[in-house]
Design brief:
Length: 155
């Protein structure tokens, strides 16, 4: 299970494998110290600690630019590719103001949408649509227009 989580985050983010291994074992040690058998099985507690801990470790590493292994991108397909950030930035600049704001909220202020770690895309999309309608005052037609615009950019 530990190796599974480490490899998942390494392939998805490109964060240095050695740093992920070290952090994962620190998280496993913490999970062992804080485990309460009356609340959960140890495997569940360990999974939760590893998933959340590695997610935030990768996020901080990518934001700071540290611990990144650029050689990984040449050899693997990754879910999130920091090397493509420049391409995306150019594409995002060509979007409407509403679409740029929607992308900014998802990437920079996920707390506004109450995003908690790994949630289904459908859930996050629904929260974003409600946010665009309520907070930004867009009509339902405009919200769907923004969604189609973003989807076209990503394809």
């Amino acid at each position: 299970m530990v190796i599974n989580r480490i490899m998942h985050y390494h392939k998805a983010t490109g964060v240095c494998l050695d740093d992920l291994i070290q952090h994962a074992y620190m998280l496993a040690e913490k999970a062992d110290r804080t485990f309460d058998p009356t609340k959960a099985k140890f495997s569940t507690w360990l999974w939760r600690n590893l998933t959340h801990g590695l997610f935030w470790f990768c996020r901080k590493s990518l934001n700071s630019g540290a611990n990144f292994d650029p050689g990984l991108l040449a050899n693997h397909h990754v879910e999130f590719c920091p090397a493509r950030a420049c391409e995306w930035k150019d594409q995002i600049e060509n979007l409407s103001e509403e679409a740029r704001e929607a992308i900014r909220i998802v990437l920079e202020e996920p707390q506004k949408l109450r995003i908690k770690g790994h949630e289904p895309a459908k859930t996050i999309r629904g929260r974003l649509w409600r946010y665009l309608g309520k907070e930004m005052g867009l009509t339902e037609k405009d919200v769907w227009k923004v969604g189609r615009e973003i989807k076209e950019m990503l394809q």
